[in-house]
Amino acid sequence: MKNINFLFLLVFGLSLGLTSCEDFLEENVKDQVSVDYIYTTPAGLEVGVNALYNQMRFYNSPSGDNPDLWANVFFMVATDLGLHRTWNTPYGTGHNPQSFTGSKWIQGYKIIDRCSAIITSARSISMDENAKKRLVAQARVIRGELYLDLKQMYGGILIDTIPTTPQNINDPVEYKVASDADVYKLIDGDLDYAIANLPFKVDPGRYGQGVARHIRGKSALWQQDWAGAAAQFDAIINDGTHGLVALIDVWGQNANHKESLFTYQRDFLLGPSDDLAGGGGFWLGSVFTHRTYELNTSELIQDVAYGGQSLGWFYPNNYLKSLYDQTNDLRFKTYYYSDNYQDYKINVPGNPKFGQPITNPAIAAPNGNYRAWHWSLKKYHDTEKLPMTSNSYKDYMYYRLAETYLLASEAYHNLGNDTKALAYLNKVRRRGYTGNPESAVTTFDLTSWTLNNYLDESARELAFENNRWFLLKRLGLLVERQNLYFRSSPSGTLSGEVQLKMTPAMVNMPIPQSQIDLMGKPAGFNVGYN
């Protein structure tokens, strides 16, 4: 009997465009690959695994402006480091099962089901065992990652490893919240299998042992298994496949560098939509960026150097700004667009002051219009973004080694080894102050490991990278810190900034109402919402 049945519209055929495999583009165009081919042949198994990568790219970096984008942006900005100006409002009246996007829940379980289908069917496929194990390992990383995602987001979740088929789709259904022990047993089992069967060195856009260990270490932290977490993070750091890169390269145009544990691949020529191999245009490079070109049209036009087409929906807040040593910490100018108007030059051809600093924006934009002018995020800057659009085809680094170092620091502190905890923390910090990943300069080192020092350094390095919300939740600090520092400015001005209160119930995200109704409102889900 299946525990989950028809929580999503099951698609039995997989589009060739979802394979992320360029070889198929050279074949005759076909609409679908048969299910029998995918689940009974070696080549089909590879097609199925490739399709999972495209589905995961849609899950974590969808194109365009839609609820799927909002599902990802929420976790990046709705923390103690964020400022909301417009668009979807975190913790507002729409934060409930009826209105909040259900993208993560619905898409997550859909992909999990396909992972289970691949894992199950592989047992009966005759092929080279090592090649089979590597394909299955990739499916198991994805399944383990998704279950950890869902657990972090929703609290009480369902687990199921039996793939949906035409034969079992009408079986009786039991909707029951899984125990923490069962959830983590499944997550860790999947990831341990992947660790045993994947190499560290893989092609860009593929899951390797590094990302499998990184996620496994995160699972251990949620279980307060400090030794297990430290062992996973040490294995990544000590292997040498991954390493910190120069600060200027971390968020440069090449996202497939040594620091990347995993990067989503995009290619306009193989797209341009989510259901094709190249993916669609991703808007992240516009969401967090101010529109300097609205300050004074006689002085400024859209310029890719200043972010190009921008949206200015969300920004880093003044609390985050206060955490930086703005004189010495190079991350302040590397990870963010400057808030010194003299750094922006008049770029309108024919203007007699062309190349000179723009007019003081306090004059050009009375009352501090945030959309046109605000300290803003540069991490997702794309020097090749399509002009006059928000579409970016830059590859998207999703997991990186700097987070591994910081999480390892936390694990070692909880093991009572602050010497190693500080060594890992300061490894990242030194790079931030010198730009050099191998710097031995101790001038700005932290000399004591405290929770505040750790959280502040994590904020300086990893702000708006899809980890802060989950870190604070795991530490039990999400509601407290969000209510202290997260701000909204519906008017887009400093004088219009207000608090958006988060309630304790909101630490577990609202399961979409359609799914609650389907399940018959079983106990254990959406505490505080219904």
Overview of the molecule:
A four-stranded mixed β-sheet has the order 3-1-7-8. It has 19 helices and eight strands. The chain is mostly helical and 530 residues long. The model is unreliable at 3-31 (pLDDT under 50). The longest helix is centred in the N-terminal third of the chain and has 26 residues, at 129-154. Helix 14 (401-414) runs antiparallel to helix 16 (451-462).
Which helices and strands, and how do they pair?
Blueprint: H1 35-40, H2 42-60, H3 67-77, E1 82-84, H4 103-122, H5 129-154, H6 180-197, H7 209-222, H8 226-239, H9 247-250, E2 260-264, H10 284-287, E3 314-316, H11 318-322, H12 331-334, E4 336-337, H13 361-364, E5 376-377, E6 396-400, H14 401-414, H15 418-434, H16 451-462, H17 468-474, H18 478-485, E7 487-488, E8 498-499, H19 513-519
Helix segment tally: 19
Structural class: mainly alpha
Poorly predicted ranges: 3-31
Radius of gyration: 23 Å
Shape: globular
How do the helices and strands follow one another from N- to C-terminus? HHHEHHHHHHEHEHHEHEEHHHHHEEH
Portion of residues in helices? 40-55%
Largest sheet: 4 strands, mixed
The fraction of residues in strands falls at under 5%
The N- and C-terminal alpha carbons lie at a distance of 28 Å
Mean pLDDT: 91
How would you classify the quaternary structure? single chain
Number of strands: 8
Strand order of the largest sheet: 3-1-7-8
